[in-house]
Amino acid sequence: MRTIVHLLNRHLHNARGEQRRARHRAKTRLEILRAASSVFRSRGYASSGMREIALAADLSPGNLYRYFRSKDEILFFCQDGTLDRLRAALEVARKARGPVSTRLRDLAAAHVLCLIGDVEGSAAHIEEGELPRAIRAAIVKKRDDYEHGVRALVAGGIRHGELRRGDATIVTRSFLGALNWTAHWFRPEGSQSAAEIAQVVADYAVGGLTGAGDRIKGNHA
Amino acid sequence: MRTIVHLLNRHLHNARGEQRRARHRAKTRLEILRAASSVFRSRGYASSGMREIALAADLSPGNLYRYFRSKDEILFFCQDGTLDRLRAALEVARKARGPVSTRLRDLAAAHVLCLIGDVEGSAAHIEEGELPRAIRAAIVKKRDDYEHGVRALVAGGIRHGELRRGDATIVTRSFLGALNWTAHWFRPEGSQSAAEIAQVVADYAVGGLTGAGDRIKGNHA
Lengths: 221, 221
Known about the structure:
Distance between the termini of chain A: 71 Å
Number of helices of chain A: 9
Largest sheet of chain A: none
Shape of chain A: globular
Largest interface: A-B, 45 and 45 residues
Helix content of chain A: over 70%
Number of strands of chain A: 0
Strand content of chain A: under 5%
Oligomer: homodimer
């Protein structure tokens, strides 16, 4: 009986140790992604190397390679993580109740925060064309899925007269353009926080969907 | 007397010849810019060379070099030409009478057409970071001037209660983001013409300035 308790304790102890190591590893990975996206932003992706990323993450290059094999892999996880968070925000908007304009406004603010918040999303300024060929297809597929999901929300809003009539595809791309453009002009050292900017941009972006002067159509006041 | 007439005729003849040659040269330059921007779009700027541009413009490489010294110079004139046309559209919007929302709507449509129309503007998808260092400062300065001009129009509209209240800088960048994003997603082989797309995007972009649901402020109906 004592032996069984002893074995169970040891097993529990090992399991906890593994969990701790896994948590530590996940935390370090996130710190590396954050450091890397700041390096990509300041030096440009082409001029950034694993050495600079290791330096920014306060790791030895050897240690960095225990987490990621290459800067392409790091970029992949930066973009992939951003897209996962965008998808999560889209799920919230899909399932929420209330006017579609409110749900799209919340989605827009979350989208901007994903891109210019202080985590790995700031690598979002890197264009499709700059993505290494090996990871491009997977990222583009995920981006397309996200765009389709947003378009379905917009199209539904137009169909139900909650949003102004217009070509749902073009209107959705304009909406996403206003949001995505923040990754180009946002400077972390600026006077306004990412959260403040996200609110103003989201108001603008939803305004484009709901109405314009004498063109307002089916607008819910 | 006959000699003077003869001389005058010869002078006129030479002047006409020069004008004709200048016109021909300007036409060829424009054709080169158009061909180059299509090459940049399909191959990416980094992978495009003078050889490919010459081929697309139906010129020998040697002949191409009589017009432009390098692909950087070609890119400069592509972007510079687009910015000249944007500035001209801004001047029209500035001087026009009528509601600022109508003037900004016309400007937005002209802006999109500059970027995705069939002339040299399609090189507008090339990002600041990709611009060769030698030409970057001049282009960025001109882009900044244009942005300042648009912002002044937007700020005036907000001040006079014609546009919804909001941070004029952020709102202007969101407006330009919706417009600029077209350069990323537009495909010339798509089913809609650049002109049709410009109208939908312009409606969207001005909608963001004028109002959104219950947030409408000082909207002129």
